[in-house]
Amino acid sequence: MLFSTLSSVIRLPIMFKLSRSPLSFPWVLTSCAVVGVLVGGSHTPARSQEYQGCFVMDSGGQVFDLSSICASDQSSSIPQLGTGDIQVTLQWATTDDLDLAVTDPSGAVVSYSNRQIASGGQLDVDANAACSGVTRSPVENIFWPPGGAPQGQYNIEVNLYLPCGESSGAIPFTLRLLVQGSTQTLRGTVNPQDPTVSFPFSLPR
User: Fold this and answer.
1) What residues contact 46, with CB distance under 8 A and at least 6 apart?
2) Do 110 and 117 form a contact (C-beta atoms < 8 A)?
3) What is the DSSP string of 55-103?
4) φ, ψ for residue 134 (rounded to 5)?
5) CA 172, CA 190: separation in Å to the nearest integer?
6) Going by C-beta distance under 8 Å and a sequence separation of 6 or more, which residues neighbour residue 47?
7) Are the beta carbons of 155 and 142 closer than 8 angstroms?
8) How far apart are alpha carbons 46 and 193 in whole angstroms?
9) pLDDT in tens, 18-49
10) pTM recorded for the entire structure
11) Secondary structure (3-state) at 2
């Protein structure tokens, strides 16, 4: 059977989902990551191959791509985040609307209402805006492209803009701050009584 064949030829450090296929193949092996597959029988040397997506392997080791008929397991796509001299990424785990803002040395502020400023700062990802199209894995991101960020003092603000029907308690968040290749992780909480938290940092002269 294909199931036993798969068990004998695949050695992977991650878990996979086996599901019934509408085709003639009895089992479908589904993966959402690039994986290494060792293919070979008892009389032929094993060979390593990489496949990504949804595929099935028959008893002879032939792989058939079924990505066109497989449903995605991901409820939402992972956003592509801009980066450069400075990158500030906010993450939290509720459907509430938190907002990220960064003030540059001149006093200009990058935020949801001012997505790009003269010094090059940009807000390229905004999440749970006004409680619309919410996700429980929200991300917001502000960055300055390589070679464009002015030196001096900056300030990050995380603000609880709008609770979206969940608990009125504290909302934990994580900030990833990248400055000229050096990364640090900052953590905090916001709530309706204390909706704003600030984190100063500098780009050295």
Assistant:
1) 9, 38, 39, 40
2) yes
3) EEE-TTS-EEE-TTTSPPS-SSPPPP---SSEEEEEEESSSSEEEEEEE
4) -75, 155
5) 7
6) 38, 39, 40
7) no
8) 62
9) 444 444 444 444 444 433 444 444 444 444 34
10) 0.62
11) helix
